[in-house]
């Protein structure tokens, strides 16, 4: 297999808060390979954003602190770069699209200028050239009337248009890695599909590897090549998208898949994961998922021993003590839900 | 925007008129403006009657007010009650002096306060931040006259000890200030302490606003976006954060500028500066309604202009504001 373009190794990111230390990212490792789309899923607060913010050095310090790990981008550890070196990576080699397009653009600067600025900070592009290129980018991401839109302010753009602008900004320097952190969550359902299309197009255009963070497994099924499932600041399962959907080897992943609403099912038969996401200040002992785990049933090992992330198949890893019982668990859920797992549209 | 400005000016005319009427009414309530004149030993009843009639003081207040108003276009602000000196030239002079003091103090305050506010916010909870916070509390709580006196004492003592005159502690100019550059150097050495006095409270106030505003902006998503683009921290702070953080602060400074123009009464009194504040106090003591009314009209107009400027600046800084 080719070398990963980004390799997160044993990353620990914590926040000091008045209530205690928030262990937002707890020994997380995952790889991103050139050209692929890696989907990252997990409930709110599972550390998806903090992980990628750590990659770009965007964690506010204090209260944040990266206390362990390395982040290898093309072989260089981003955590060891000086500010000046890291700045050259940000926005140039790694482009980022944030969750909320309503607040992610500067309200007092013209949208076009903000995109051109992303270009001009990394290359010596004269203003008129930057303008032309920006207009091209705006056209590429489907902003109509790009010439006129260049000189408008964010408040004159709709939510969907702003996110297109953000995508244009993120790909302005043809980055090798594109990070999209819930790029459609804040948008209307009708707009979401369009923006995703733009994102796919942008990815094709630049051939960038992509990290797509989302709550939406449906989106993962549609766009991702591989999947990382996060829970309580840890990676609990990773694998190919097919494998993850058809042979999940972690009860939490199975829970996420079974809670997917589908057209051919009654909504009543949805199986949501019971219980609350864990507190990141006082993570449950042993396996952090044990208070909610159907498979664990409060077994001693689950309560006391933290399961390591181990190989369970080709390029498939899971952090569960009882992965071998997952087959029965899937069968059980399937009998409750009908063709729950196989029915997922790939 | 021009239409907007014009409309704002038109709307403020009745406001200014109403406030002048109210003040006119209250000033006339404070008692007989001729009381002092009456008490003078060598004044005859005929002279008193003459003043009363020529000024219309025997008429109802409303009539007096209308007379006063009518006299403004042709007659400037007329003359003082006690003599035939004209009010307008005096008022122009004190207004000019106060403007010099206030403009210098405000500009310096804004520069210092913005710097303090930005650095405090960038280094929240640092030693620097705590120091400026402490300074601000002192600035708020220190009586202005007391600080002014302390400054005077310090600089008089320096003069006595070393025979070097750094700053003067009274008046606007030396008896023979010279002309051109020499004049302005001399003026600066006279105004330095009053400027410092005015700055203490302004810097304390504005820097607090700036810090709060900056803290809010620093943690916003678009500042994170700016950083994610790979911009230098300085560019992120100045171009992306400060530009936004300034919007509320500019409004506050512009508004307060109008208010201070009425005269920094305490400061001007302590330093014996021939400005608006001292002028007002002097004629209030003499119960002469005419200079007071003239002073009020000028101050009210200044406040209206400052409001307008604040609004226009707001629109200039924030493209989301539309004037229509
Ligand atoms: N600046 C901060 N100060 C304190 N805690 C923080 C800070 N930023 C993030 N956290 C905490 O880190 C944890 C992980 O947050 P993160 O944003 O990575 O979650 P997420 O998986 O992206 O969730 P979501 O799907 O809601 O975006 C959360 O519990 C959050 O409260
Ligand atoms: S280790 Fe135990 S609690 Fe954790 S997921 Fe596996 S079975 Fe459930
Ligand atoms: Mg997030």
Brief description of this entry?
The complex is a heterodimer of chains A (346) and B (324). By secondary structure, chain A is an alpha/beta fold.
Please write the string of helix (H) and strand (E) elements of chain A.
EEEHEEHEHHHHHEHEHEEHHHEEH
CATH-defined superfamily of chain B: MetI-like
Bound compounds, each kind once, are: adenosine-5'-triphosphate, iron/sulfur cluster, magnesium ion
The CATH homologous superfamily of the largest domain in chain A? P-loop containing nucleotide triphosphate hydrolases
- What is the average of the pLDDT values of chain A? 85
- Largest beta-sheet details of chain B: none
Rg for CA atoms of chain B: 24 Å
Oligomer: heterodimer
Helical fraction of chain B: over 70%
Question: Strands of the largest sheet of chain A, in order across it?
Answer: 6-7-8-3-9-10-12-11
The shape of chain A is globular
Annotation, overall tally of beta strands of chain A: 12
| Low-pLDDT ranges of chain A | none
CATH architecture assignment of the largest domain in chain A: 3-Layer(aba) Sandwich
| Main sheet overview of chain A | 8 strands, mixed
Count of extended strands of chain B: 0
Terminal residue distance of chain B: 8 Å
């Amino acid at each position: 297999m080719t070398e990963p373009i980004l390799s997160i190794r044993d990353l620990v990111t914590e926040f000091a808060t008045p209530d205690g230390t928030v262990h937002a990212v707890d020994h997380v490792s995952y790889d991103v390979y050139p050209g692929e789309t890696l989907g990252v899923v997990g409930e709110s607060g599972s550390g998806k954003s903090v992980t990628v913010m750590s990659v770009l050095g965007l964690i506010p310090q204090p209260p944040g602190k990266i206390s362990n790990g390395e982040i290898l981008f093309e072989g260089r550890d981003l955590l060891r770069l000086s500010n000046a070196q890291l700045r050259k990576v940000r926005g140039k080699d790694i482009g980022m699209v944030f969750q909320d397009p309503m607040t992610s653009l500067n309200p007092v600067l013209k949208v076009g200028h903000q995109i051109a600025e992303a270009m001009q900070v990394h290359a010596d592009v004269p203003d008129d050239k930057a303008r032309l290129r920006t207009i091209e980018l705006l056209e590429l991401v489907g902003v109509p009337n790009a010439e006129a839109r260049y000189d408008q302010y964010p408040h004159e753009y709709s939510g969907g248009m702003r996110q297109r602008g953000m995508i244009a900004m993120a790909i302005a320097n043809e980055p090798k890695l594109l990070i999209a952190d819930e790029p459609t969550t804040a948008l209307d359902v009708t707009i979401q599909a369009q923006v995703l299309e733009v994102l796919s197009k942008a990815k094709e255009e630049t051939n960038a590897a992509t990290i797509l963070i989302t709550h939406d497994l449906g989106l993962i099924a549609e766009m991702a090549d591989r999947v990382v499932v996060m829970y309580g600041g840890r990676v609990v399962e990773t694998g190919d998208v097919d494998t993850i959907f058809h042979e999940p080897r972690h009860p939490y992943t199975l829970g996420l898949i079974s809670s997917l609403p589908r057209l051919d099912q009654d909504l009543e038969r949805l199986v949501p994961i019971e219980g609350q996401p864990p507190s990141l200040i006082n993570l449950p002992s042993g396996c952090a998922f044990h208070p909610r785990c159907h498979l664990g049933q409060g077994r001693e090992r689950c309560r006391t021993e933290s399961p390591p992330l181990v190989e369970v198949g080709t390029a498939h890893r899971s952090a569960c003590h009882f992965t071998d019982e997952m087959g029965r668990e899937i069968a059980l859920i399937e009998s409750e839900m009908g063709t729950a797992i196989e029915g997922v549209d790939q | 925007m021009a239409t907007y400005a014009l409309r704002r000016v038109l709307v403020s005319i009745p406001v200014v008129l109403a406030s002048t009427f109210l003040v006119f009414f209250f000033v006339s309530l404070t008692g007989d403006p001729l009381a002092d004149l009456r008490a003078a030993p060598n004044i005859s009843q005929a002279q008193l009657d003459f003043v009363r009639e020529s000024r219309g003081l025997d008429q109802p207040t409303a009539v007096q007010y209308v007379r006063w108003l009518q006299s403004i276009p042709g007659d400037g602000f007329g003359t003082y009650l006690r003599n035939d000196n004209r009010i307008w030239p005096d008022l122009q002079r004190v207004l000019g002096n106060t403007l010099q003091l206030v403009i210098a103090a405000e500009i310096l305050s804004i520069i210092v306060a913005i710097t303090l506010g930005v650095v405090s916010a960038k280094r929240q909870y640092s030693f620097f931040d705590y120091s400026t916070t402490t300074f601000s509390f002192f600035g708020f709580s220190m009586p202005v006259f007391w600080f002014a006196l302390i400054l005077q004492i310090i600089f008089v003592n320096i003069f006595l000890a070393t025979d070097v005159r750094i700053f003067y502690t009274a008046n606007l100019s030396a008896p023979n200030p010279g002309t051109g550059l020499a004049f302005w150097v001399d003026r600066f050495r006279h105004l330095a302490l009053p400027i410092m006095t005015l700055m203490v409270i302004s810097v304390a106030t504005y820097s607090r606003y700036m810090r709060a505003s900056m803290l809010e902006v620093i943690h916003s998503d678009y500042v994170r976006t700016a950083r994610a683009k790979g911009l230098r921290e300085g560019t992120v702070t100045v171009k992306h954060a400060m530009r936004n953080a300034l919007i509320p602060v500019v409004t506050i400074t512009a508004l307060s500028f109008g208010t201070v123009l009425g005269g920094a009464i305490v400061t001007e009194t302590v330093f014996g500066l021939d400005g608006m504040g001292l002028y007002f106090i002097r004629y209030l003591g003499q119960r002469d309604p005419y200079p007071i009314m003239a002073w009020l009209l000028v101050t009210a107009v200044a406040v209206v202009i400052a409001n307008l400027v604040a609004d226009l600046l707001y629109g200039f800084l924030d493209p989301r504001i539309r004037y229509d």
